[in-house]
Amino acid sequence: MVTPSRGRPVEIPELPPRAAAVGQALNHLHDRLEGHQTDYITRTGRYWQGIELELSLADVDLGRRPTDQPEDWGWARTFPFTRLESLVRVDVYEGPGGWGYVTTAKIPGDQGSWRKALAEGLEAERAITEWAWVEDEL
């Protein structure tokens, strides 16, 4: 399929077959994250943020964390991360309706990536997406 983008035509690649497995992993991670977020916001007054992890590695680096947050991905040590050739991250937002968080999976491709997001919070419906192709920024 070709769509105009920034004034030029772009070919959108097919969604890779592994998207089903990545989507299932995202759902599972997001479900497990809910309990962690409840505990974390009670302890710290804010939601936990997860810096992007590469799930294509044999050993996922769970020690990565944002510079303004002491806790890393350690809570997820028992999560069955597998070689899914994808990336996952957790972003926190504050909107007019309050705080929330978005868990995003990304499958990299040439000149862009496939992304799917799940969200929690008062404005979650605006952040939830099915798989969508997103072009790389120039």
Please render the helix and strand layout as text.
Elements: E1 2-5, E2 8-11, H1 19-44, E3 50-54, E4 87-95, E5 98-109, E6 112-121, E7 129-135
Provide a descriptive summary of the structure in words:
With 138 residues, the chain is α+β, with helices and mostly antiparallel strands. The protein has one domain (16-135). Helices cover 19% and strands 37% of the residues. The protein has one helix spanning 19-44, and strands spanning 2-5, 8-11, 50-54, 87-95, 98-109, 112-121, 129-135. It has a 5-stranded antiparallel beta sheet with strand order 3-4-5-6-7, covered by helices on one side. The chain has a two-stranded antiparallel ribbon with strand order 1-2. A hairpin with a 7-residue loop joins strand 6 and strand 7 (129-135). The longest helix is centred in the N-terminal third of the chain and has 26 residues, at 19-44. The radius of gyration is 16 Å and the shape is globular. It starts with a strand and ends with a strand. The relative contact order is 0.19. The mean pLDDT is 86.
